[in-house]
Amino acid sequence: MDASNPTAEQLQTRTANCPTHGDFESKAIPLPTFSNKPGKVIWSRCPACSRETAEREAAAERAEQEQARQQRIEDRMNRAAIPKRFRDRSFESYIADTDAQRHALGVAREFAENFPEHARRGSTRVFAGNVGTGKGHLAMSVAKHVMEQGHSVFFATAREIVLMLRARWDDRTAPGELEVLRMLTSVSLLVIDEIGVQFNTDAERDQLFGVIDGRYRDLMPTILTTNLNRKLLLGAIGERSYSRLREEGNWVPFDWEDFRGKKKESK
């Protein structure tokens, strides 16, 4: 056989050199042909370079996906009206040093992790206790977990909800009361913060009842936070709303010292 005229089998591999990784075995890759004539071939590049390129591209794709995921979460937080100060709250950053704090954390985690079941039942949780005890922290942690699972969330103080329902009174271009009520009663999870920090008029109680009753009738989960005890909460929201909360709700006490006050004292 003429060594100067190698066969196709002999052309399957050859030694090539990579400036970075040195010699490597390059393989012939036949190009498609539509005739009986031998087709052209291309030679494989350095496998180490190929792996590094693939790893860089995969890392870039993961970074792009993570950035897109973070943007989706940020967009959801904006739609949920979650204040920027609360957006870094998480279960992991919640300090639980006592049995009572661990109980509160456990209730919040269970609610978040089993949200589909609570959505089926229309469960309610009332986080009640002193100012600065972490009620908002755990409520936000639940909200973030629920959002990351693709559910809709809306956060507002009780006072803000009343103002939203009344906005059309002063601004004819604002959403009407019925439109706002439909949004508040249809969102997957509603967090009502600072129940009791309002004027506590009969009109306000009626408007809050419309929200609580609408969610109760449609089996929509709700989290409420309040600084009030049970008796004062009953007075703030009225007997009808209080009765709705009790049926599928759990009262979660936050009866320890003010976290924020302790932080200030330690400085």
UniProtKB/TrEMBL annotation:
Q: Where is the composition biased (Polar residues)?
A: 1-18
Claim: Coiled coil is one of the keywords in the record: yes
One Pfam family of this chain: IstB_IS21
**Classification via InterPro entries:** IstB_ATP-bd, P-loop_NTPase
Query: Which intervals of the chain are annotated as region Disordered?
Result: 1-24
Q: Where is the IstB-like ATP-binding domain?
A: 68-229
Which segments of the protein form a coiled coil according to its record?
49-80
Q: Which UniProt keywords apply?
A: Coiled coil
Q: What is this protein called?
A: DNA replication protein DnaC
Q: Which organism is it from?
A: Verminephrobacter aporrectodeae subsp. tuberculatae
